Amino acid sequence: MGRSAKAAALLLTCSSVALAGGFEYKAYDGKHPLADTSLLASVDDRSVDCQQSKIVKVDGKSTGILGPARFSARVLPGTHTFVIRAICVAREPVFVGNYWTVDIDVEVKDMLPLHVYVTRYSTEGGRIAIQIDDLGERAEYRAGILMKPTAF
Length: 152
Fold this sequence. Notes:
By secondary structure, this protein is mostly beta strands. It is built from one helix and nine strands; from the N terminus they run αβββββββββ.
């Protein structure tokens, strides 16, 4: 299988998971009511370039390398550090049909219970920048076409 065929297969697989809803990572031990948690989503519903980004670490702990990609992480309120693997389509003429990835450390301060936070990506000159938006309490967020909205 050629390089472009492998890339196409990877994007198709990732797209299928994103459309089906992705997978949420629970970043705390024990049972807590959803009302006592916050949610960070790594898929920007406004970006066409970075739809396959995922969360690879929460507070230094890996979300796992085997199994499903983690498109969201549920945490207890407070300040948390996330490593987001931004996977973006390259739109530059040199890179047409390709994508690139970069792991970006993001600290989200004072996450509040019931709030939904989402990553916002910008790409300029071959660089990816991330900003975190707080959508507010009990915000409805749907990253993939078939994904159920977030619920608390």
